[in-house]
Amino acid sequence: xxxxxxxxxxxxxxxxxxxxxxxxxxxxxxxxxxxxxxxxxxxxxxxxxxxxxxxxxxxxxxxxxxxxxxxxxxxxxxxxxxxxxxxxxxxxxxxxxxxxxxxxxxxxxxxxxxxxxxxxxxxxxxxxxxxxxxxxxxxxxxxxxxxxxxxxxxxxxxxxxxxxxxxxxxxxxxxxxxxxxxxxxxxxxxxxxxxxxxxxxxxxxxxxxxxxxxxxxxxxxxxxxxxxxxxxxxxxxxxxxxxxxxxxxxxxxxxxxxxxxxxxxxxxxxxxxxxxxxxxxxxxxxxxxxxxxxxxxxxxxxx
Amino acid sequence: xxxxxxxxxxxxxxxxxxxxxxxxxxxxxxxxxxxxxxxxxxxxxxxxxxxxxxxxxxxxxxxxxxxxxxxxxxxxxxxxxxxxxxxxxxxxxxxxxxxxxxxxxxxxxxxxxxxxxxxxxxxxxxxxxxxxxxxxxxxxxxxxxxxxxxxxxxxxxxxxxxxxxxxxxxxxxxxxxxxxxxxxxxxxxxxxxxxxxxxxxxxxxxxxxxxxxxxxxxxxxxxxxxxxxxxxxxxxxxxxxxxxxxxxxxxxxxxxxxxxxxxxxxxxxxxxxxxxxxxxxxxxxxxxxxxxxxxxxxxxxxx
Lengths: 303, 303
Hints:
The structure is a homodimer.
Chain A: E1 3-6, H1 8-12, H2 22-33, E2 39-44, H3 57-63, E3 71-75, H4 79-87, E4 92-98, H5 101-108, H6 112-129, E5 133-138, H7 151-163, E6 168-172, H8 180-193, E7 200-203, H9 211-220, E8 225-228, H10 248-257, H11 266-280, H12 287-291
Helix pairs in contact in A: 2-3, 2-11, 7-8, 8-9
């Protein structure tokens, strides 16, 4: 049994150049709610200037249908965003900083020291509000500016936030630099480091084609929670033309084939994926959408 | 240490709608010869009517530069093709039939019984000529018409041909239906069945995004020989829009990252891949071409 978190409404839509109407976002989340996900990352409470694509965070959170059993989570970049997310009734919050100093400064315009202090304050505030916070560590497997990142840096931050009340830690392969043995090694070292009550999640990108290989390696190493984005939405600003997040449907399909229960039903999920090209006005990098599940058979020629 | 066989000039170019000029094919093979492959599948000695894209098989074989240490192999569909390939001085021949009855009839227009008899006759003829023959078993992990294929059928055929003088057996995931645990299981059962002198090769397609995950699982299960096609050339006629063969450069890149020696140099290979879109007059499904190797770093913004 593994858990799949759908992050497409946030991590996917945030970089789409064409604004997706609030109605369509709500319909997307509602359709995803019926697929069996453990968790759906609905939106990000950031400034409308920073991420105009998600300027309607309150409206989306207000209008989605909350299906019992699904955890509706939101990304929050700072205390102000956290208050907005708490007001919107988010079930869980996702905080983020980078393991890489250069990436943290480029992406968040703060030093890692500043980000660390901010995340600790946010964990304290969320603790008062009684809302669990997951901490996502970007560039955990490499930085597009610095190259390799020492596992000890990731371990240091994970331990720090776990000790400060984080409900879970997500290792993010932000620009698709992870490879299978690296994933297995970091999964094992972190599992040994963190209390069993703090689950680890793996957030993969398919930038260099290795998303499913990395998911396999992580699963073999004992990881049981995976982020994915429907249709492989999302992207990598440093690799134009590269595909985005690990595609949720390809994760589900692979684990289905292997007999691993994901909780997610592939048939309704594929309906959501099939509707994405219209929603985002472009093709999506889903191999599974083009090919169909492996046992979809075809009529033999000449019969 | 693993071996990578480049099959793009045959398995990739055979389905390209635009005829690639003989000069360009020769230049492609010559460029590949300098990348460090164990084996290059140059062409197919089939009828020009069946596969017009490879109608120049003799000319290509005659004009390529033979780099010492590289095995130049050719696909041969029948005894007539075998004589042409032998006349052309192929170092090795690749014979093919399907594990699935329906696919064999659709693809080769023969029953499996007829194909088996033909392959046995070809193995005998090649043995007289002293040229090693590899036997490729298509649809080893599933058939687009029949669905799952019993592993016992693959095992039966592999054992039959190994006993009849085949120099190696290739398990082909012809339409991208393989998944990691299945690959590991079949790799293990065949390794136990065949003499150690008969190497197993895995031929993957990325139709459902699992090519690298399957390669990883196979490597973990002890397989050491992989086919790939530069740029992910090739395709699946039953899944329009689906990508083709496992991309050679993505296989090499993943194993490089893992510290597994492939013998192949990624830098000259990426130059070949970069030239492919012009060669085949379309984009190629190479994530690595779009993104670059994982440690290609970028300047930080604002610096």
